[in-house]
Records
---
Amino acid sequence: MVNVKDRGITMKILILTGKLASEIVNRASSKSEHDVHTLTINTPIAAFLTPRRIIQELKKLELDYLTSFEIIITPGLIRKDVGLVEEKTGIPTYKGPKDAADLPVVLEMIEKLELSSQIPADKLIEDELRQRALKFIDEFENNEVNVKKLLKKPENIMVGNLPVGEDFPMRVLAEIANAPLLTEDELLKRARYYMENGAHMIDIGMIAGESLENKIPGMVKLLKDNLGDVPVSIDSLNSKELQVAIESGVDLALSLDHGNLNDVLPLVQDYKIPVVILPTDFSKNWTPDTVEERVCSLESLVEKCKGIEVIADLILDPINSKSIIESVMACHNFKKRNRIPLFMGVGNVTELLDTDSVGANALLSGIGMELGASVLFTVEESGKTIGSVHELNVSSKMMFLAKSRGSIPKDLGIDLLILKDKRKGETIQEEMDVPIIPGEEDYEFTQDPLGSFKISVKDGIIQATHYKKMQPMISVQGKTAKALYDMIIKEGLLSRIEHATYLGAELQKAEIAAKLGKNYTQDFPLF
């Protein structure tokens, strides 16, 4: 990579393109602050260009005109290293974006980027913005002087060794549901999965209506011994379970309400751990009805908990249950009147909403940021919410950056775009004077004499098992379709072209399913 940061504010740039993208490139070039010229090469698709072809085209230009350029930018879709162009012309030559629609962004950031002759510029832009965003968050989290200063404010507290509060990125608390029913290996595997996906704290979810306090000491010890400094919490309203968990060393207890407060509060005071408080009395099956009733009920509990650190949970309601709007209003009103960390049970909404969790988690994180929330609580119990911990971790960072910059959560350097692209590209389709044959599914499949494959996906790994005469012979495993079909070809496990095309299509489906966490069933569509 070559740094072009010091070349000056205005640069004379030559952009090369093919015929199909020339209109988009010319339009983008005309809007740049730099002195940008374009050269349209007589080829329909820019990806067909090679460094040697580019050199031949540049030789046709007047020498004085060519040498006046400081930079040459080629299409990003060129496969080979375009450094050869610089060797022959003496002019720094770099790859532009793969999509011509991204060219304005490249020209805008060109002085700040380290362009490459090998890597397309759009990839470099993404990496640069991401690195800046993550660096900002990392420097904030590791500024010990600033952290200590912020922890003096009442809306910020420590949970174990983790600063939690309105001035910090929202922390993701991931619940291991029905934890007492899991083996030690299952419990630890689940906790590690959550941590790998960005959970800041791990919660032991107990079973409502049962008293399993005898299981708690072992679970707490297992997690504390294996998770390092990651705070561990307990989720129960059972007084005995909460007491045992506190004595066993949990860093956070959830939850206390008017029903169990008197039983648990003395122990909380002795152990000096923070607690999540609810505006309810579940011992009497009582929940507040109105916004003001929620706020006042929780404020009375805050008074009773003086001397201990609390996190307020106004209870985020699912859509069209009691009222998600009223629960958000309760959070808003409580936060305006109290400088106390706020808890948001995001999983209450996503688990009871039949939609993909990505956008829902991002939106709820944004609402949480505006409310001044400190903790985002979730569980991954259903297929539609798999990945929620990761999604909340990323969206928490996004909202922290937006809040810190005073901007909307857009163009931050990190995003949660998974199924859709950030920018709408302009479709370029070549018009050719050739016969057009409509595609039809009419080819009769013939069994491959070398056998068949059974494809499956589990935990992000694709497995293709080769069968011959109904007997499994060998399995090929990997994370990408290419890794599998390259090995299948190398091992000589297929012989017919229709079998190869079928296998490629199915393996690509399996890879998409693995990346998205979707169920994969061979021969059935993903969507």
Note: The chain has a mean pLDDT of 92.
---
Amino acid sequence: MKDTICLEEKLLELLESGYDCRRGTQHSFEVLYHLSHLRENLTGWLPIKAQETVLEFGADTGQLTGALIRKAKQVVCLEDKEQRGRLIQVRHGQAENLTVHTGNPWKILEKEGLGNFDWIIAPALLQQAVFFFPGPCPEAEALKAILRYLAPGGHLVLTADNRFGLKYWAGAMELHTGKYFQSLEGEGFGYSKKELERILEAGGCQQVQFYYPYPERWFPSAVYSDARLPRSGELNQNLRNFEGERLVLFEEEKVYDRLIADGRFPEFANAFLCVVGPKTEEQILYTKYSNDRAERFCLRTDIVKTAKGMEVRKVPLSEPAKKHVRDMKDWEEVLDRCYKKNHISANRCELRGDTACFEFLEGRTFEEHLDELRRQKDYAGLTMELLRFRELLTETLKPEQRPFEKSGVFREMFGDPAFSKAYEGAPVNNLDWIFGNLMETKAGIQIMDYEWTFPVQVPTAYLLWRALSLYLNSREDIKHLGLMAQMGISGEEEELFAGMEHQFQLWLLQGTVTIGAQYLATAGRTIPLWQMVEAAKKNRIQVYTDTGNGFSEAESRWEKAEPDKQGLIRLELHLPEGTKALRLDPAENPCLVNVSRILGELGGTYPLAWTHNGRELEAQGVLYTTTDPQILIPEVVPGTRRIYVQMTVEELHPDTAYSCMELLNRVRKAERFYESRPVRWLLKLRKALR
């Protein structure tokens, strides 16, 4: 309780001081969890209308409230903790359409007579139900109770963690218990998709639409639906262990791609968002947030199903971003005039207020085409298609190209790279002339997205580099093909263009600390599988016994070999009857071993002779450069049932071991040289002459 009060006091102090999480000066998961603007991404996309009312049931510290009060006519927040209710008031106190009640939320609903609501946002309803409702299924009882406060035709919004979310299989801890694999074992507060479906049905929820926040529900960057599931390569931001350490047992992106191909993503999504109620007139099937950057570029991209069909919308998320979105209509006209000379068009744009609406194009992107060739391992075909892309880009921009000169705007956006050759470039450029934005449709080739269009001249070669660089970024299997060189981009140019891109990304952020940067500064450590395997291999020794059939894995065992404070390993080995010889493998890597003693016990102790497959370093011990170091005890006196070993084992990096061996060989060579008869004779002669 004391820790909670301290946290709330800290949050209150930060809010009163005007703290902005975008600046990232507080490296704390708790602060990020409660105050990050990205928390609103979970529900900020919901199609709440200006005349509708919203009940936020369990508002916590108001992480989701801001987006709700910007949309709805009236928002009522229920929060059981008084201190957190105060935080909501401080955080959103300027809103005239906000009412906050603190105390038992169910009693407040009964007592206050708040009426029915068009939307009820209840993120923690299912997880908290057990504290308010008895019986075998408290979640279903909570649903029945909350639905009484929903207006006819209204919507209830619930969220839950997926107990079978891929992150748990890959090694993330269960957030609430802080233990590995508990979610998979049935503990914690998560639900499988089938469990949720059963609970919703039992609770009287007749119409339910499932959505899938990604990467999870704390700081989602995208929300998918059953009508628009993720595509291969999209799920590539999977490390989100802000709350503590995690294991990394496999590459989640690759596993997601296989699940997507198999149609099983909904079963393994990390989180669910359920909308209970009739389908709205316009359905948002997918939303992607781009609000982790400078405010004037913050927007949301929605794929919307309307009565007329599908369309894509760019929605500004801040006042400064409205101009950025409105400018897209102007760029459509500019780019269309430029591109049509090469039979390419810009996706049609229509402004509706401050929202830019685009035609939903159907066809195959150039990226999908390249990926198909990549899956077939048709690398010659892939290279030919890249050359075709280069020709398409250069021919399209050729009529507009002029000798490139650095302008003030260029330096502001891209820095001041020291080019060693002359370039050409158009005066206006769509920097996102990338493979994923180029689509072949029935109407011809179209540029789908041209948000990053600016009146700035850049080298056309930079646009080519940018497209290929973004494509190669998550495709390790083709990085060795030398595609940049085949596109005519030298190593020096790669370095220069990478510097330009870095400056451009900083310019887009304008001081914003991204969630990725927050992760690096805040998150717990990640422990990859290979590191765990390496750690498991340490402090153990494999013991082989020969009882007449030679050494074999079947007649071997592992012995713990924990060194003491002085680094000494002391082993007491019990031998099976009939043991004739023994082999000890002290490590599975190059190492330095110093054996103090090896004794057998037979009435008393006796020393055992041993050999090895390393090189002796006199007092330092035996140096092994092999990954299969061995200590061989070729003769064990019959009847010996116990052996005592005392030694030190120091594992070495292979380069260190080989360097030591090389040095030892040189020393031995020098010793042999000085001990040779001619050298000894010369030394005697030299001494006599003196």
Note: The radius of gyration is 34 Å.
---
Amino acid sequence: MEKNIKFEQNTPLWDNSLSIEERLDYLTGAMTLEEKIHCLTTGCPDIPRLGIRATYMGGEAAHGIEARHDQAFNKGEPEPTTAFTQPIGMSASFDRELIRECGRAVGEEARALYTRNGGGGLCRWAPTIDMERDPRWGRTEESYGEDPYLTGEMAGAYIRGMRGEDPFYIRCGATLKHFYANNVEKDRIKISSSVDRRNKNEYYLKPFKKAIMEGGAEAVMTSYNEINGIPAIVNDEVRHVLKGTYGLPGHVVCDGGDFSQTVNDHHFYQTHGETLANGLKAGVDCFTDDGEIVYAAAREALDNGWITEKDIDESVRNSFRTRIRLGMFDKEGDCPYQNMGEEYINNEEHKQLARKMADEAVVLLKNENEILPFDENTVKNVAVVGPLSDVWYKDWYCGIPPYEVTVLDGIREAFPNAKISHETGLSEIRIRLADQTSDKCYVGLDENTRLKLVIKEQAETFILNDWGCGSMTLVAKSNGRFVTLEEDTDIIKADKKEAFGWFVRELWNLKWEKSSFTLESWNKKQVIVDKDGHFSICVDNPPARFEIEIVKDGKTAAEKTAKEADHVIAVIGCNPVINSKEEVDRTTIVLPTEQEELVKRVAAVNPNTIVALISNYPYAIGELEKNVPAILLSASGSQELGHGIADVLTGKAAAAGRLNMTWYRSDEDLPDMNDYDIIQGKRTYQYFDREVLYPFGYGLTYAAFSYEKMQIKKERGCIKVSCFIKNTGERSADEVVQLYVHKKG
């Protein structure tokens, strides 16, 4: 048993008086080749005679520590952690210091979980700094915008907060994702991104340079795609640019499973041994894949003379350099971040940081006739409508927060003396087989919540939510559970608490033909009714046809509620795992038709309708904008989301956010997603030459500002610009000073 194993600490590895390179010299001399090979993944094994305990690199921290423990490799009970706004929303604050403080909170919680559990999680796979050249990219929520300078500054602030102030020891290391030109999810594990020298150096590499040389990033993760025909895992720019030019201090990992994909999907090599050999030579240190596959590949590479032990030594040195700086071999207790405890998880300070970040992430897109902010003392009757009004959605890299504040929660708290009415705008329906005379032609639930045919009196009422692009969810009203296609079966049940997963099995497509429809599952299979009356999927039998009976018309109910109120808050937007996520790009920037129609109908009966758009990416809302006097935008993800919206509605917080991406008017403004030439393709605010809906950097606030006495001086090789800024309005407000320069060609 482990309690009888002595982990030796009286070795040079644990000697803080030695330089880090001297400690690594000892380590590579003392380890056996077998032990070194086992360190070529993101983990290392127990090596008691050297005092090495098994640890791992990795874990997610895009906007808080992800400790859900809901995936196959780390099953367990969730550990709640503070959830901040999605990175695309944090970046919209343009506030370096606040983002740095959020990064500090993330680093503190990483340390506290390490104290609690041991094992690892001190060098996290965040932030994502891929350039957001196309708003359809499925992972837009994870990054910081379309501008390389802004991305480098905002991500660098997050990194510095994670890292801490000590000149040697690291509180929590940051691993930048993904190196590089990684903006398409479809076929990402085998496609190639074509990037010329100018685009590469002026755009795609810029944030990596800033995040490493100025931000202090510890590590980098390579991307899945090829770059000009070369898989990123064997791209020698890892060695020559990241490590050579930029001076990356730690290690480089490949993306999850990409090691095997180099053979299986890119078909770039014949064997995994070739991938490992060339990956090491390119500068990749840790291969994020099945340990047995990596081990066998290393043996193959050694046996064939493709690598030597010296090549493996370099990888071991790089990964253990990070471990030493994390304080994992700190005999003297010099690391100031050791033994940080439970008091750092979900504490009051982190809660307040989350709220301030939620406040500053809100972008005020429209405020006609200064309808906002509301005076919470005079508002008497507010209707809150919309499918996102009373929900809080997880994204793929979020943790489980200790609590969630929905927009409805925030508004109820903000207006304690007002009447608050609520309608989702979603319709309630019954579903029946089309053209049937049998009594058992309605859809109900059996005792195990399986969908089956029943008589009308036993019919289930479903809440239908149409997310656009053929993605709909159905919730059984009797139990509040989502209808789902059970994993690895053809059984259809209403038993899921949420629509969530790598594959969102709760998605359905109602494919209409005249007055009836067929039902298609998330994986494009047709729904049939079997001989027992249960619902299942089949590719061979003809699909069943259905009709709908409206039990409650959601839009009509929302209209009625809105008509009776003084003000309406219409909450619409996206679900972070529907229509856009890792492995799923958006096919359009159009707002879901049902949501747009809901707002138009509500605004028609009450002109004081304010839209709160909860979205992690731009939408083409030009038509919607014409119908309402004010629009607020916030990214999702924060446990304080509802407070952030309410604080800006009431003026408790000034509208502070600014857009970090261009908002285009239509899909026609966007070139092919696989076109990485932003200059010729006229992408982003730098090169787009037509009218936009909202420009990069746009965002209103609650006062006017004057700019005076601008001066430009050249000092010590730098150009310094200064000016006086004055709030000329009648209330406190937030201004973001933006200066745009370019070299005249």
Note: The chain has 19 helices and 29 strands.
